Amino acid sequence: MSKRVALISTGEELLTGETVDTNSAWLAASLWDHGLIARRMLTAGDDLEGLNWALSAAGDVADLVICTGGLGPTEDDRTAEAVAAWAGQSLVENSEALSQIEARYRARGREVSAANRKQALLPAEAVVLENRWGSAPAFAVQRGGTQVFCLPGVPVEMRKIFEAHLSPQLVVDDPPTLVRIRTFGVAESRLQAMMAKLDLGAADLGFRAHIPEVQIKLRFGPQVPEEDRSAVTATICGALGDAVFSVDGGDLASTVIERLTSADQTVALAESCTAGMISAWLADVAGASAVLMESAVVYSNAAKTRAVGVDADLILAHGAVSEPVARALAEGMRARAGTTWGIGVTGIAGPGGGTEAKPRGTVHIAVAGPEGTVHQHAVIPGTRAQVRRRAAGAALALLLKSC
Amino acid sequence: MSKRVALISTGEELLTGETVDTNSAWLAASLWDHGLIARRMLTAGDDLEGLNWALSAAGDVADLVICTGGLGPTEDDRTAEAVAAWAGQSLVENSEALSQIEARYRARGREVSAANRKQALLPAEAVVLENRWGSAPAFAVQRGGTQVFCLPGVPVEMRKIFEAHLSPQLVVDDPPTLVRIRTFGVAESRLQAMMAKLDLGAADLGFRAHIPEVQIKLRFGPQVPEEDRSAVTATICGALGDAVFSVDGGDLASTVIERLTSADQTVALAESCTAGMISAWLADVAGASAVLMESAVVYSNAAKTRAVGVDADLILAHGAVSEPVARALAEGMRARAGTTWGIGVTGIAGPGGGTEAKPRGTVHIAVAGPEGTVHQHAVIPGTRAQVRRRAAGAALALLLKSC
Known about the structure:
By secondary structure, chain A is an alpha/beta fold. Chain A is built from 15 helices and 17 strands.
């Protein structure tokens, strides 16, 4: 089955940026689970001109179109009208839709208003899809080889109707398989260079930068056997070495939590420039409380000394952003909290604070553990937020290499 | 000025539903702030066929097209190639783009790879838009009456380039005026109800939920005088009271930093369930280091006692998630760090850990200051991430009410 699929989302709130189009993303992910890819997505407003444009642009390239929104009772709900015009059908009161609306209102002891009655006006040959989760009737219309499904824009109704009426029709015999390799610390262009000479067999390759990590996505057709997929995956992991931190697994923080949980180990952090970001990432993983014992956000020198026990003279001698202070933060925190691992991060996130010797973006990271302390130094480019995110990622990656 | 605007977003990750298209929503909102509406949005994959389709469909209906994504160094980055074909131009190495890439790599002491060099291949008549935030060159191309701007898909780069290069060109003769009232702690539907009977004059009203805050956007036509705008704004602020924390100002964290900086005051935090999130939010504001002295992430009971001095018997008597412990965290942290303000947060973020007496989402927050300690208790609905974000927001809002 290789249906060509397009999605249409409608609503002025999408055009003004007030609402992010999560409906299309949800539908795309659901279609993907069925082995289908929504090759085109379009968004238009509530006006007939926009709806006509979207239907005609989508209808030209797809044989399955899913349209969300514009089925409500108000004057700016015009999807049925636009679809009727696109399909060359008249707009008529659909008795099945009307009786569903009446039943719904009767059950609540309420009258059906003229506005609600309008919702039963559908293209003459529409097939009604029962909506048990709201009052807007959903429907399907066919024109030539193209089928258009119209679903309400309210996410919960849209999802339920998709699952009840569309999903059963979309069963694909041979869905593709996706393998996701997550990497840290190597730029996308360098990853590609490192993989340039590898034999990737029938894998379809994609990259996705999601600061601070880069994901490599491998898509295999349904006929590729499991051992071939594993072989390609192993080849890539071998070539990328340390840069890979998970295959079909979680992000850096959840990989750390998983690894330490299964080893029955714990961690504590002393964060200066990252200021709690690493701790917050770890804590976002359910079950973190068994691993993350405590952290100190030690912006001021006084706090570094008082809360983590860093020698004030050490700070005076080397500066707060230095290898000895990063090491003292990691070791001091590990000792105070009595954890398996201690992490220390100190740096200059900017925009101010940089010097020639220690430019903006300078970061010192240390990880203290049962076998000693490792240290890493980097000058990270980018904005304050980027420096902080990349430093946080680097600290977790350094821990993963150590543990 | 009534430019017809279309947005194109590209990337397989959008078509598979892995990524929600926040870039288009951000661009739409920014255009709206300039008095422009993106009448059409289109999404295609990384394939030339899809890109060609999007450019031709958008170019037919718009005189300004903004396209995001597909400018990276890898083989699946094909936007420049597609735009060149659409504009009828050849793809040539752009010396300005190349020298920007070279300068960027040289500054990092790295070689320019063949893949990076490919990023300088642009349509022959492209105008390069300097990208100081990443390596992907952005550019603009004109065909007939239609101008296409191609921006990187990485959100931070896209936003910075939009602000630096597009925003100044989008000056509208009679722009509408936008007033943004930022609120916290009251649901959108309730805000709407509280404002239902207010006289909003000629204001166009919009709401935007951005967890943990809700923004109220007032759009005034160019002919509305300043005093009328102020009067409407004052009416709304009066009706919403404490829920409003800024008018045309920053978010909760930057409002806190601004307020404390101008009062020459400082803050320290003891975070349990929020685990560094509040500190990280504050630290994301440039200049935070003068205000945020230190924080302790105290997940374990032992850490609450050791790092902040909370009496172990108090925790035994009331439990870690309780009013007395929240107060002790705030007061202990304030005393240890010697700051003007101390914040303590303890709660059950879930998914586990809830009991009948203290259900999941239970949060106790305390703010200790020169005139004593205030406390707030809430049971916050939602996922682990939502509970933590809302608790972090509530802590900052409580500080703003106190200081």
